[in-house]
Amino acid sequence: MFDPLGALTEAFTSFLFGKVETTRLPVRTSTGQAQAVYLPTAAPGLGDSGVIIGREVYSGKGYIYDPFQLYGQQLPAPHWLVLGESGNGKSALEKTYVLRQLRFRDRQVVVLDAQGEDGVGEWNLIAQELGITPIRLDPAAALNGGIRLNPLDPSITTTGQLALLRTIIEVAMGHGLDERSGFALKVAHAAVTGQYADGEPDGAREEAADGGSGGGAARRGRQPVLSDIVEQLRHPEPASAEAMNVDIDDVRAWGLDVALVLDRLVDGDLRGMFDGPTTAGIDLDAPLIVFDLSHIDRNSIAMPILMAIVGVWLEHTWIRPDRKKRIFLVEEAWHIINSPFVAQLFQRLLKFGRRLGLSFVAVVHHLSDVVDGAAAREAAAILKMASTRTIYAQKADEARATGQVLGLPRWAVEIIPTLTPGIAVWDVNGNVQVVKHLITEAERPLVYTDRAMTESASLPTDEARSLALAADAEAEARAEAIAMERQLRNESSETVA
After folding, report:
1. Partner of 310 at 20 to 30 A CA spacing, among 47, 163, 234, 265?
2. Per-residue pLDDT at 37 exceeds 70
3. What distance, in Å, lies between the first and last C-alpha atoms of the chain?
């Protein structure tokens, strides 16, 4: 209906102040041309081939990651570092990642499970679900039919055996071997491997010639073991001293400290796990292999020694050029990165494994645990090979230190202390995004194994689901608020500029 008073008012206003409002005609355009109007709020994704992780919080799109698909294109190396304080979702991410990777036929995973409760490792539920028995390394059970790994296993090359023996001794001693001790170890190892080259030790032949039956006959055809090295260190071969024109007593004295360290593995608190032939029946063709280290004191010298032995043993028995894609996941990986001797072994493994399809996943609570330690140089080399870094919530000072070491952008460093459980900053070779990890209902009972989650899971199903949904909604709202704040900050900085 025509309003004469309104028309008169508009005409009078236009006469005094000019036309207040203009009418714009619609413009036809394409989405390609109009996209400049809506500025992007998230970096481009990593493609649509691989394992889905969750959702990118700024754009809401799915986040898919697979080091084997990205290697050579967006990733120079397939190795991955996961950082963050306890209770923020590292464990859930690792487990769902492995479960989803195992859906591919050409995938195989080894896990060093260093945590657990109720007498088993935290990967025990997943192993049971897949019908797999974990390889439980336990000093108390090793003498009663438990699992043993032999550092002198014939499947390991003689060079690898000697390098592993040196690492065990150097880790236990806390310093490198001097030339004399190294020489005593080398000649003892050469003597033992020479004796067993034909499958029958010299001692067995001598006892058989003398008419003995017990010890010599029992030793025939077995693998050389650490006690053989200790025996050679105590009683070195005269030929080894003559070859270097030194006295035999000097060689024995040089090897005394080495013998004492190895004796701890033979008769000390680590007795039984490494002194004996490798346990038969370990299935290295299973899709998932779990080494349960939860019975080992995480703060003892046994843990880095054990990781070194497992790592080298797997290098020579598990990694093969058969076109399989392998994942080696290590929890409490600071035991590796913080020891210069173990780190050197794993550094070689990472370089070697890259050609054979190996992705190394290291899980660490605090980066300061390793970059300020005795193995700072070796740690830096391993961190450099990890082209993927996932950082969960950390305190502000720790986040700043982490950002400086990893070269994260300032906005990512600022957001890390505000992250809620399940949300992390992902840096994939410079592509930095904030990702919310999503867990399916089928995966939830397998990945939430700590006590706090168990207590929540004991609630009625509907109530537990309501709590989970409420927590997810709160996390998303917080992420959206952070995104809005970031956008406003960018706009204000542009205005000032």
Report:
1. 234
2. no
3. 50
